[in-house]
Each structure stands twice: as C-alpha cells, then as structure tokens.
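Form 7-S
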Amino acid sequence: MTKILAISEANTIAFHAMALIAKSKTSINAIKIAEITNSSRHHTSKVLQRLVKEGLLGSTRGPTGGFFLKKPANEIKLIEILEAIEGKVTVKRCPIDNPICPFGTCLMGDICHDISETMLNYLKENDLQYIVENVNPDKDKNLF
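Output:
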C-alpha cells in the first residue's frame, strides 16, 4: 500500500520505544520492545543504541537490565527523538530537493512544504510526556 506521509521504520521504532520506556515502571529491554512493536530485535537494538549514544536513553546490562530515560519525559521534545535517528531536520521548498523546478514553480504547490512545516512544528512543540498521556489506556494496559 502506498503512503502519502512516510516515517522511517527506525523513527517508528524510536518513537514507540521511547513511549514504552517512559510508561514502564522499570527499565525495559530491547527484546520486549521488539515484541511489543512487532519489530526485528536487531533493528530495535540498533535504534536503541543510537538513542543511548545521543543521550536520550541510558542502559543497564544483565538479566534485569534494560533501557531507561536519561531525563524526564516532559523534557524530551519529539524533534530530539527524530533527529537522534535521522540527523538535523531541514524543510525545503522542493520535495525532491531540486534547486530549480523545470516548471518554474512546484507542481504540487506549497502542500509538501506546508505539511513538512506542520510536522516539524508539531515535533518541536510536543514532548514525550504528551505522547505518553495520549496513548489509549485501554490498549496499553497489557503491554508490560
């Protein structure tokens, strides 16, 4: 199925993992996160290690080990999570980064730019706590 707006699998794992970790009463390991998100263990581990490297998560080893937030959820903006995985975000006029459109103006008008700006503003304005508070409690009660 074709998607109009696509978020990378790594970002999807990152956002879900961060929300799961924020909601968990104890540290949670990569295997459990991969099971809950229906993601590959290997890919989940790579994403989590990237979040550790960027200072958003900490980790402990051993049978009771796992991942934990390095700062409170209300201090982690969603843009920090995205940029930890993708690097610095920039919004350009052209959806395929052409410096000059052969038609003189974008065939899609400004819709691609407007959607990108809206998404960027959402990520800058909202924090991880917002996500945690807006998860459907009936759906997540059996996660842990």
